[in-house]
Design goal:
The complex is a heterodimer of chains A (303) and B (396).
Chain A lengths: L23 H13 L3 E5 L3 H4 L13 E3 L5 H14 L6 E7 H6 L2 H9 L5 E6 L39 H7 L4 E6 L3 H13 L4 E6 L3 H4 L6 H11 L5 E4 L2 E4 L10 H5 L9 H26 L5
Parallel strand pairs in A: 1-2, 1-3, 3-4, 4-6, 5-6
Antiparallel strand pairs in A: 5-7, 7-8
Chain B lengths: L1 E5 L1 H11 L4 E3 L7 H12 L6 E3 L4 H13 L4 E6 H16 L5 E6 L13 H4 L7 E4 L3 H15 L8 E6 L8 E5 L2 H7 L16 E2 L5 H33 L7 E4 L6 E5 L3 H14 L4 E6 L1 E3 L3 H10 L2 E6 L9 H10 L7 E6 L9 H13 L9 E3 L11
Helix pairs in contact in B: 1-2, 1-6, 3-4, 6-8, 9-12, 10-11
The chains are: A alpha/beta (303), B alpha/beta (396).
Chain lengths: 303, 396
Amino acid sequence: MMAKLTIPEEELMYPGHVGCLGCGATLAMRYTLKALGQRTIISVPACCWAVMPGVFPLTCLKIPMLYTAFETTGASISGIRAALDAKGIDDITVVGWAGDGGTADIGIQALSGAVERGTDVMYIMYDNEAYMNTGVQRSSATPIGAWTTTTPVGTTKDWKKMPKKDMVEIMVAHKIPYTATMSISHPEDMIKKLQKAQKIKGPKFIHIYAPCPTGWRMAPDKTVEIAKMAVDSGAFPLYEVEDGIYTITRKPKELKPVMPYLAMQGRFRHLPQEELDGIQLGIQKRWKRLLKLEEFTRDLEGE
Amino acid sequence: MVRSVISGNSASAYGAKIARAEVIAAYPITPQTSIIEKIANFVANGEFKTEFVKVESEHSAMAACVAASLTGARTYTASSSHGLLLMHEMLIWASGARTPVVMSNVNRANGPPWSVWADQHDTMAQRDTGWMQIYCESNQEVLDSILMQYKVGESPDIMIPSMIIEDAFILSHTVEPVDIPDQDAVDDFLPPFAPEKKLDPDDPHGFGSLVMPEWYMEFRYKIAESMDLARDRIREVEKDFEKRFGRSYGGLMDFYEVEDADAVLMIGGSVASTAKEVIDKMRKEGKKVGLARVRYFRPFPVDEVRWLAKKVNRIGVVDRSYCFGHGGPIAAEVYGALLPTGDRPIVKNFIAGLGGKDITPEVLERLFNKMLVTNESGTEKEIEWVDVKGHSLGVE
C-alpha cells in the first residue's frame, strides 16, 4: 500500500502578499514552492505574481526571483539554465511562472523556443483565464461564453466566442517529456506531480488551475470550492502526459453537471440555455476524447 | 599573439571567445550571421567552452542574456538592424537590470525599403536604452573593444551593457590583419565576471520588482551616475589595455590632425579611415583639415566636443542616419554640448551614406572644401543631405 502523501511543512511563501481576497494564484505559488523546495529560481513576467510578492524592497517569497518582460519567460529561464550549466550547477530547479495571457498569448513564442531546445526547466502556467492583473481582459485561455472587459456582452452578445486555447496539447505536440494539469483544489496531486516533474530532465510544462474571484465575479471564499467543481465536472480535468502517454489522475465515475459551476460565476450569467448546453456538450466531448487518448496511448507504453 | 587576416565578424567571434563569454544567446540576421556561425564552429570543434543558446528571436536573445547575466555569467550576443530593433524592450531591460552584457551590432539600414547595407539608424535609434555604444573604425578595434568593454561594463560601480558596432560589409565582411591576443594575456587583463548579487538560492533576492514613485527615480539616477562614471573608466581601461597590448584608440573621441585645423569633419564608423586618407592628401595641398572620430556615442564625449570647439571654428558633422523631424543624431548632440559654453563654431550637419550609399574620398573632399569656405553660421543650410537624387540642397 502506498504511503499517504502529505504536504511539505516548509514555507517559502510568507505572509504579506498583495493579491486579492480569495486569490487562487497564491495557493498555487505556496504549494508549488512547498513541492520544489528552497533550491529553486523563478522567473516571472508581467502578471499578477509580478506584483503580488510585494513592493520594493519587500518580498513575501524566500527564493530568488527574476522579474522579466511579458513575452520573455521561456527565454529568461533558458538564460538562467544556460548560466547554471556554464557554472556546472545542476541541483537548482529553474521555473518559469507565468499567467495564461503571458503563456498562451504574448509569451507562446519564447515558450515554444525554450521547450523545442530541450531546455531543462519547468514552465508553470497559472491559469486564471484572463488578463487579471490589468483588470479582466480576455486572453486566448478565456473559456467560451465568458464575459471579460474586452468581451462585454453589450447589446450584440459579444462574449468570448472561441474555445479556450489548449496549451497542454500544444506542449504535447512539442514532444516534451512531461506535461500535467493540476488544480489548487487538489494540493496533494499538485505536490506529487511537481515533485515528479522536478526529477525529470528536460522541459516540463505545468498547467495550474487558479480561480480568480475578482475576475470571475464570484464570492472570494469559494475559490477552492469552484476549483474542485471544475475538476469534478470535467471543465478542468486533471491528467498528465509522460512521453506522449496520457494518464487521467482524477477520474470520477461520472462527471458532475457543469451548470452549478457556471452558475456560481458572474462571468457566465448572461448565457442563454442553448449556450450553456453547448458548454456542457463540449466538456463531455473533451472528456471522452481524453479517455480515448489514455486508452490509446497506454498501448504505447514501453515502446 | 596570433596575427590573422580576418573579417570584422570573425574579429567579433574571436573577441567573445577570448573574453571567455560563458553564455551566448543569438539569432541570425544578415550581415551578422558569420559571427554566430564562427562561434558555432568554435563550439562544435571544442575550441570554445560556452553555453550557446540558439534562441528563436532577437527579443529572446536579449532576454536570455539578461537572465544569464543576472545568474552570474558573462554573456555575449550579436545582432543587426531589425534584430536590434526587435530587442529594443530588452535593451532597456538589460541596462535597468544592470547587466553588463556585451553585444556586437553590425550597423545596417532599417526597412522598408529593404536594405542590408551600412547605415547607423539601427543603433542610433537605441540611444536612450542605457547602453554604451562604440563605433569602430577597424576590425582590430572591433576585437579590442569587446575585451575593453567587458572590463568597463563589469566594474562594480558601472554595471552597464555595451554595444560594439561595426559597419555592414565595410567591416563585417572585409578582411584586415588583426592581432588576436594570447588567452593568458587576456585572462590577466580581464578577470572572471563576479557580480556582487546574483540569482542564488543561498542568498535569495528579487531582481526588478515593483517600485513605487518614491524609489523609481533613484534607480534611474544610479544608471545616469554610472554612465557618467564610465567616461573615466573607459579612459583608464584603455590606458591599461595599451600598456599590455600596445594599442589604443583615442578614448571617447579620436582626433586626427585637429590641432591647427581650419575645418574638421566629425564622423563615426569606418568612414573615418577614408577621411584620414583625404586629410593626408588635402594637407599636402596646404588645406588644414582634420577629423574628430566619434568612438563613443554613449556616453557622449561632451568634454571632447567642447575642447574641439575651442580649437576649431568649423565643424561638419557627418551623420549616417537621420532623426526624422530635425537633424542627424550626432549633430544634435554636438549642438547640445556646445549650447551651455561660450564657443560658437560654425556647425553644419551632413546626412550621408544612408543604406550603404558610398561615402567616397571624393565625397569627403567636397565636404571638407565646403566647410573650409563656409561662413554660414545661421540656420539657412544647417542640414544638408549629401548626393541625394533630386535634392536641391545637395553639395555642389
